[in-house]
Amino acid sequence: MARFNLSVHAHLTVIVAALVAIVIGLSAVAATSLIIIDGKAEAVDQKWLASTELLGEWSDRISEFRLAETYRAIANTAEARAAAEQLADEHRGVIASLKVENLKLHGGNTAELAAFGSAWTASCGPRCLGERRYRW
């Protein structure tokens, strides 16, 4: 094995250069990791938080729609029934617009909404099937 006869100054220079190279390498890895984390955080901010907000709005509107359907079912007069149907139609329209907003957010991917769409159509019954704008 070859033995290098270097001075103390040369040994220290090599050690310092190695430490600087290690620090530069770790800095590059850290910077790359931060760029990746920033991209993921941006995706969460732009897509998933907006989706969570949409789900909350859907939940509220579906509950209000069901309440309007209950009002329609227990209405005693034709005026009360008409008011309840108008309220249900309003909520149904907002739910349909939320679907369109969700499709825009997810690039037109309807696979995520397939189960909801079939459940919504089943619960909505014949009142929604005749109206093209509310179809899933």
Please characterize this protein's 3D structure:
It contains four helices and no strands. The chain has one domain. By secondary structure, the chain is mainly alpha-helical.
The SS-based structural class is: mainly alpha
Tell me the count of domains: 1
Tell me, what's the shape? rod-shaped
Q: Fraction of residues in helices? A: over 70%
How far apart are the first and last residues' alpha carbons, in Å?
A: 78 Å
| Main pleated sheet | none
In sequence order, what are the helices and strands, one letter per element?
A: HHHH
Gyration radius (Cα, Å) is 31 Å
Percentage beta strand: under 5%
State the total count of DSSP E strands.
0
Number of helices: 4
Question: Spans with pLDDT under 50 lasting ≥5 residues?
Answer: 129-136
Q: What integer is the average pLDDT?
A: 82
Determine the oligomeric state from the structure.
single chain
Summarize this entry quickly:
The protein is mainly alpha-helical. It has 4 helices and no strands.
Task: Describe the secondary structure blueprint for this structure.
Layout lengths: L7 H67 L3 H28 L8 H11 L1 H4 L7
Helix pairs in contact: 1-2
Summary keywords:
136 residues, 81% helix, mainly alpha, 4 helices
